[in-house]
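ARCHIVE CARD
CATEGORY: sequence design from structure
SOURCE FIELD: tokenized fold
FIELD CONTENT:
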């Protein structure tokens, strides 16, 4: 069964793992250990981003990471990145 839920601070390690797997899939490297950044920026007092976790039979199957941004040309906007494990 597929479930989608909001990530919480307990999921920080899962989010880090999924980001790493996305980087591998895209043949990109991560420049540093994002663990502390994820904790601060995703689950801190004033989060910079939000994450939804997709689970298949209670196992992580993917994520959607999203955040607001502001363009000087277009005004406010919304960025969404989705990655599903195969």
């Amino acid at each position: 069964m597929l479930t989608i839920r909001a990530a919480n601070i307990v999921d920080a390690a899962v989010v880090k793992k999924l980001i790493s797997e996305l980087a591998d899939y895209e043949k990109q490297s991560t420049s540093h250990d994002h663990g502390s950044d994820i904790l601060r920026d995703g689950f801190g007092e004033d989060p910079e981003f939000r994450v939804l976790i997709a689970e298949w039979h209670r196992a992580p199957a993917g994520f959607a990471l999203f955040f607001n941004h502001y363009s000087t040309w277009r005004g406010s906007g919304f960025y969404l990145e989705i990655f599903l494990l195969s």
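CARD ANNOTATION: The chain has one domain: 2-84. The longest helix spans residues 12-25.
SHELF: design records, drawer C
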